[in-house]
Request: fold
Amino acid sequence: MIRRSTTALAAALLGAMALIADASAQSTVVCSVGQKTCGSRCYSPLKGESCNEGNIVCQVGQKVCGKRCYSPLKGETCNIR
Reply:
């Protein structure tokens, strides 16, 4: 009886481990309230952050320029060719 319950427990643990491995392989992103997803990261548009097409989070005061971020407050400009 003990051997059967040990075997059943081991099988259940292996099944649970397989589910965890499968879930982590899917790369689920959970963000806080008010945040949005940017690829595999979270960002806060209400704080001035933005996400560009390359899934790069731009910081406060920066703007999206193609696949990069730039800082207009530092005199940088966006030139997409």
Remarks:
- The first helix runs from residue 2 to 25.
